[in-house]
Write a structure and sequence with these properties.
6-stranded parallel beta sheet; 7-stranded parallel beta sheet; globular; alpha/beta; 18 helices; about 375 residues
Length: about 375
């Protein structure tokens, strides 16, 4: 068992329950908690990934087993064994000052484990996406929402990454009126030191204009739109794609075929976050912050990582109008938001964009305070609320 330093023990201890110990936002949250001076014991599942080896994760980790992505029916039978494994460290659970949990199924594991261990620590429930299951109109959706309302009633604090999650879902759909905390998907300050010395935020305007689509690649429609932009504009535009392809949403063969038909589109593969952020964003003019995966629902409400990562690294945002991302990007001067049909709007914009207009908008981006993109004390403030 990892020993806790006396000074961190005095600040507090967190039992963190996560659905995937190597998922970037999980690592981001755990790192942010440790950076505040609190200690963390990680109670973690890991997602099955064909052909990918798990990186070594430093810290005190209690493995809960292997689970699967996007298949709630297959995950449910794995929750009870996860509770049993968590209780192997029941003394740490009982000693925790805060139980922090990501996602609904993990909230059930965390609540049951903590109570069986005799813990009275407050439960913090974090939601970074409103999953399709939660907005289904059928019986399955109603059951899921009922379970979530039960968890919300036992949570000391709801944590969201976008205000629209509360105003569009939790308040009107779930009838939630309890305390909530906004923790945006900004670059965490404790990770910035790894890349700050390599940030080159200035840009030489195009053409060719370079659009970067980075992160977890789930949006099939984005791929189609970017291919249309590449086809229409030819050598005056380049599309650079990097990250992890979600094979549940985009067929790898279709992805490869799309790239092969468009020589001005390229896939760099996975990248390290934050270590390679300056490398991927530094080579593009625009960050593609468009999502249609849950059009009219979660896709319209979220504020994605790439919005802040791109701004920090000097890339202007391309977003959809009438979405939280589009409204935020336009209001803050991070970039542009386009009406539908999106492909035609983006093509027309890039055909008429000149160096002066780009330089003017980028100058405004560079003048923004770093705090617009970097979270320096969000987790500290959050823990102070529930400590």
């Amino acid at each position: 068992m990892t020993q806790t330093h006396p000074e961190t023990a005095r600040l507090g201890r967190v039992a963190f329950f996560g659905h995937d110990r190597i998922e970037p936002t999980i690592r981001k949250r755990v790192g942010a908690i440790r950076d505040t001076g609190w200690s963390v014991v990680e109670y973690m599942f890991v997602r099955a990934r064909a052909g990918l080896a798990d990186p070594v994760i430093a810290g005190d980790v209690v493995p809960l087993g292997q689970t699967v992505d996007r298949h709630y029916g297959k995950r449910l039978p794995l929750l009870a064994p996860g509770i049993v494994r968590a209780l192997a460290r029941w003394r740490d659970l009982r000693a925790a000052d805060v139980v922090y949990v990501r996602n609904l199924d993990m909230a059930l594991v965390a609540w049951a484990s903590a109570r069986l261990a005799g813990s009275r620590a407050p439960l913090v429930y974090e939601v970074l996406d409103i999953q399709r299951l939660m907005v289904r109109p059928d019986r399955v959706g109603r059951i899921a929402r009922a379970v979530e309302r039960w968890i919300l009633g036992r949570s000391a604090l709801l944590v969201v990454s976008s205000p629209d999650f509360v105003t569009r879902y939790f308040a009107p759909v779930q009838g939630f009126s309890g305390p909530w905390h906004l923790l945006e998907n900004k670059v965490m300050a404790h990770r910035l030191a790894e890349v700050a010395h390599r940030l080159e935020r200035g840009r030489v305007p195009g053409p060719p204009w370079v659009i970067g689509w980075f992160g977890t690649l789930r949006c099939r429609r984005s791929l189609t739109i970017l291919a249309a932009v590449a086809r229409a504009l030819g050598n005056s535009v380049r599309i650079v794609i990097a990250g992890r392809l979600s094979e549940e949403d985009i067929d790898p063969q279709d992805f490869a075929a799309t790239l092969s038909r468009h020589p001005n589109m390229a896939f760099r593969g996975p990248y390290a976050n934050p270590g390679e952020l300056p490398d991927i964003y530094g080579g593009v003019h625009f960050s593609w912050a468009v999502d249609y995966l849950d059009d009219g629902l979660n896709s319209d409400w979220l504020l994605p990582n790439r919005l802040y990562e791109g701004g920090l690294c000097g890339a202007l945002t391309l977003a959809r109008a009438e979405t939280a991302t589009g409204r935020y990007a336009a209001a803050e001067g991070f970039g542009w938001a386009f009406p539908e049909p999106l492909a035609l709007s983006v093509i027309a914009f890039l055909r008429t964009l000149d160096s002066q207009a780009y330089a003017q908008m980028q100058g405004g981006l560079l003048a923004c305070e770093t705090a617009k993109f970097v979270d320096t004390h969000g987790m500290r403030d959050l823990l102070a609320r529930v400590a």
